[in-house]
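Fold sample X.
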Amino acid sequence: MLRCPVCGREYRDMKRMRCGCGEPLEFKLFKGEPYIGKNVWERFWDFWPIEPDLDLSLGEGDTPLIKSRKLGRELGLELYFKNETANPTWSFKDRGTFLGITAALKFGYKAVGTVSTGNMAASVAAYASRAGLKAKILVSESASDEKLKAVSVYGASVVRVKGDYGRLYFESLRLGERLGIYFINSDNPFRIEGYKGIAFEIAEELTPDCILIPTSSGGLFRGIAKGFIELKESGLIDELPMLVAVQAEGCSPICRAFKEGKEKIERFENPKTVAKAIANPYPPSGNALLKLLREFGWKCVAVSDGEILEAQRELSEEGLFVQPASAAGIAALKRLELPEGSKVVSILTGSGLKTLSHAETGKTAECPLESLEKCLGG
């Protein structure tokens, strides 16, 4: 059963994605208990709305939870990094794509699609290829050729769309229904369910006080939140952690609406930020996320590009190379007044290999072979 997290209306059609009120749908809460299994899909079998087709899996999920050796000590916190760059296409998107592709096959679709210029596009293209489905990837006309190479390599059909990129999301759903294409967009209900696995895996290893979540459309935040809520409703954890949505100041419609006490987001005009992966000027899950923030007393923090790039550098000193958007959580951490010793998890959403143009690199030295000993000792 699907329900609207904003107005509460319920639907039985599992293929439906948005409520009549315009908000994204989600599955009602699941309750259960964990089992013994080799992956997160098996261990939390009761919590998925559809039986995962493990033959389609590329090994998504069960990503490392890495304890900080340096930054946590400097901040007086027990800091961990949930390294989602270890997923098959180097981002958290694979979790949701896997369930979405499973659903598309069950529903009998021959083609899937998504609206994305980065992580989600590559993920849908890869899993569609694995499943033998056609993939239709819709991107903005400004999408870089570098990013699109990582999509077309899987055989996906990539379409540059001229016009309002914000409208493209809703137009894709309309045309997908008409043309028989199942769009696994940012807040597809099955995608949200896949992201719950992040919460389940964290809870298996520790009891966090705070979790930092880079936020664009709002789908990742909603999925992690739903995961922890279901764990609590099932009696598997006692308390919910503090969840913090993190946006870039140059494109922060959710944080702005939250700060101003509004119930609905407004379009963020002229977005500009180095953190392209979280630069959604009109996030489709924005209103649902606002409701969650207020209902549970959670937070929303916007950080500058300078803070994001500094956090990216600090993460490299921990041996982790992430895209700027992934570093936003660490940038926000310095603005929060958390008690000393708090257990904090920062979600690292995507690999820095996807955004090499923004990487800060050191100088490369040159040395004649006959002087190599001197150069190595310098």
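Fold sample Y, listed below.
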Amino acid sequence: MIAFFSTKGYTQNYKDEQGRILYEVLVNQQKDTLLIANLHPLYIFPPIAFADKKQEKFYWKTVRDVKKTLPYARIVARTLNDANADLEKLPTDGARKKYLKELEKEVMKKYEPDLRKMTFSQGKMLIKLINRETSYTSYDLIKMYRGSFAAGFWQGIAKIFGADLKLDYDGKDREKIIERVILLVEAGQL
């Protein structure tokens, strides 16, 4: 961001219709104004050379899945942070269990309809992005909050459908295309 300010002028800030903070600067009693806005980073990657239509279709399916699941992975991370802070304040194991049960019921009521509408590939993407956002695998999260038996059960169900709750997200190697898509989506370039 570049800004020019004069000691003889005054500055006033306000928000535009998108909620961005803008600054208006009047200099030397003139009606000159300078609007300053913080811009998102701009990412420039070399163009992808698709080998065939199948590879291109896979890329655009990945874009669709990231756009659909990234907000939910962020919700999981935020909810996890809030829940951990609240759990630390509770004095007994019974109070913690009750809190977790109520939280689970509330979260399921709010998000289950949307999650049920996800495709299988979006579910697998959500598992990866939860690991990216929380640094815990989905298996670890289930184990921490529901116990080993529940974690093993859901891992078995996931395996039946070709997913793996224990898989770590690797944005530098295995999932570098996903990481690229996330950066571009966050910057508003996709």
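Sample Y note: The first helix runs from residue 53 to 89.
Also: The chain has a mean pLDDT of 82.
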